[in-house]
Specification:
The protein is mainly alpha-helical. It has three helices and three strands. Helices cover 57% and strands 9% of the residues. The structure holds zinc ion. Zinc ion binds next to loops.
Length: 152
């Protein structure tokens, strides 16, 4: 988390929390996947599919499921870090922040417009095409940062 420095003990606690979150997400995958494979095998049997074809399509599905789980995990961790930044800045009495994008070609145009502007923690700006409001990192795959505004 850029912008705010946390004591080492607190940082360790956050890392533990994030790891726990990741673990939960990864553990939630197998049951879904077992169900999916079971369904594929039953369908394959009913349709008389070749075992090798079935194996290939299960492997493809596994790759997709893994990718999806990774995307979800990454997004949840990012959202969580956004929530923590808000929590700690407002707890420290900071009322406003400067929106800062990752300043690379992957930053979405809606967020490039917000870059360098000051916002209240009380009132997230419109930051999505669908007029949704959120603070940095609280939106899908957002990699922006909230730089605390001090002394206002
Ligand atoms: Zn962003």
């Amino acid at each position: 988390m850029k912008g705010v420095r946390y004591p080492a003990a607190q940082r360790l606690a956050y890392v533990r929390l994030l790891n726990g979150l990741l673990e939960q997400l990864i553990l939630s995958l197998p049951q879904n996947f077992v169900d999916l494979v079971e369904q594929m095998v039953l369908t394959g049997l009913r349709q008389g599919s070749h075992v090798r074809d079935l194996e290939r399509s299960i492997k493809d599905k596994l790759a997709i499921a893994k990718q999806k789980a990774q995307l979800i995990a990454r997004d949840q961790v990012s959202k969580y870090s956004g929530d923590l930044t808000k929590h700690h800045q407002t707890y420290a009495g900071i009322k406003q922040y400067t929106w800062q994008t990752s300043r690379d070609e992957r930053a979405r145009p809606e967020h490039r417009v917000l870059d360098g502007q000051v916002f209240d923690w009380d009132k997230p700006p419109v930051s999505e095409k669908n007029c949704e409001r959120f603070h940095p990192r609280q939106g899908y795959r957002c990699r922006c940062d909230a730089i605390p505004v001090v002394g206002r």
